[in-house]
Amino acid sequence: MAIWLNKDSKVIVQGMTGATGMKHTKLMLGDGTNVVGGVNPRKAGTTVDFDGTEVPVFGTVKEAIEKTGADVSVIFVPEKFTKDAVVEAIDAEIPLAVVITEGIAVHDSASFWAYAGKKGNKTRIIGPNCPGIITPGQSNVGIIPGDITKPGRIGLVSKSGTLTYQMMYELRDIGFSTAVGIGGDPIIGSTHIDALAAFQDDPETELIVMIGEIGGDAEERAAAFIQKNVTKPVVGYVAGFTAPEGKTMGHAGAIVSGSSGTAQAKKEALEAAGVKVGKTPTETAKLAREILGG
């Protein structure tokens, strides 16, 4: 089983013909992802050869969906054009849009997030500034290395791309149902809570690992949701225990003001909800392993 992405998902790549899009489309195909097309208005009607796999290029997301039945778009468009690309995906009502691009203006993210809501939230957005989503052995959409884990019993949701990879590797012998990198910007699409709800409903996810970081109150809200709605064991890690107050650390959303948004406050909120929280990624993986008996 999986959440949001499986072997039947038909994927298009907005920005496929750019350098980054080309590189990661090749890697996604290598992981078995069913990439059915790219989108570039200037190259519509052409095809791109990826080691013998010919992938057609369409002029619009709407046309790509009509021609291929695509239900997932992954977006590798430069930041100044990303808002338009996401809006196009929303207008075409593609069920899932994974926005990899970083450096997007917060105003643009707020704009397409609000637009998705105005259109009835028919398009689930993951990101921006995220590594994407992988269901090992089935499909990989984004930039997560496909060879660091295997299918298994753990669901992973993380703000951090690097820590997503580390946790997948640390628990590679147990494996993952799906791993989702939601991104660390101040405004994102899908949240910890969205993933927690989906993993709770997935019968083959036995344990959830949730990785947060300093800044904002997303982890505190997730803790409240876990307390009320999640019956499966959850293990957590919060990055940023040594971060100085008032300084943005890495992700644009990772900034602490006073006691608000600190790693300690988030740890305490999660533990109060019954979540076991590790002090390091390795300790967090050990906690997960102990719960699953592996």
TrEMBL record:
Q: Where is the active site?
A: H251
GO CC annotation: cytosol; succinate-CoA ligase complex (ADP-forming)
List, in alphabetical order, the Gene Ontology terms for molecular function in this entry.
Answer: nucleotide binding; succinate-CoA ligase (ADP-forming) activity; succinate-CoA ligase (GDP-forming) activity
Domain CoA-binding residue range list: 4-104
Q: Which domain of life is it from?
A: Bacteria
Q: Where does CoA bind?
A: T17, G18, A19, T20, K43, I100, T101, E102
SUPFAM superfamilies on file: NAD(P)-binding Rossmann-fold domains (SSF51735), Succinyl-CoA synthetase domains (SSF52210)
Identify the keywords attached in UniProt to this record, alphabetized: Ligase, Nucleotide-binding, Tricarboxylic acid cycle
- The positions annotated for binding substrate are Y165
Under which pathway is this protein filed? Carbohydrate metabolism; tricarboxylic acid cycle; succinate from succinyl-CoA (ligase route): step 1/1
Could you provide one GO biological process annotation from this protein's UniProt record? tricarboxylic acid cycle
User: What EC number(s) does the entry state?
Assistant: 6.2.1.5
Catalytic function, reaction form: succinate + ATP + CoA = succinyl-CoA + ADP + phosphate; GTP + succinate + CoA = succinyl-CoA + GDP + phosphate
Query: Pfam families, alphabetically?
Result: CoA_binding, Ligase_CoA
- Subunit (UniProt): Heterotetramer of two alpha and two beta subunits.
Per its database record, what is this protein's job? Answer: Succinyl-CoA synthetase functions in the citric acid cycle (TCA), coupling the hydrolysis of succinyl-CoA to the synthesis of either ATP or GTP and thus represents the only step of substrate-level phosphorylation in the TCA. The alpha subunit of the enzyme binds the substrates coenzyme A and phosphate, while succinate binding and nucleotide specificity is provided by the beta subunit.
Q: List the HAMAP family hit by this protein, alphabetically.
A: Succ_CoA_alpha (MF_01988)
Family according to the record = Belongs to the succinate/malate CoA ligase alpha subunit family.
Name recorded for this polypeptide: Succinate--CoA ligase [ADP-forming] subunit alpha
- Protein species of origin: Streptomyces alanosinicus
**What are the top taxonomic ranks of the organism?**
Bacteria, Bacillati, Actinomycetota, Actinomycetes, Kitasatosporales
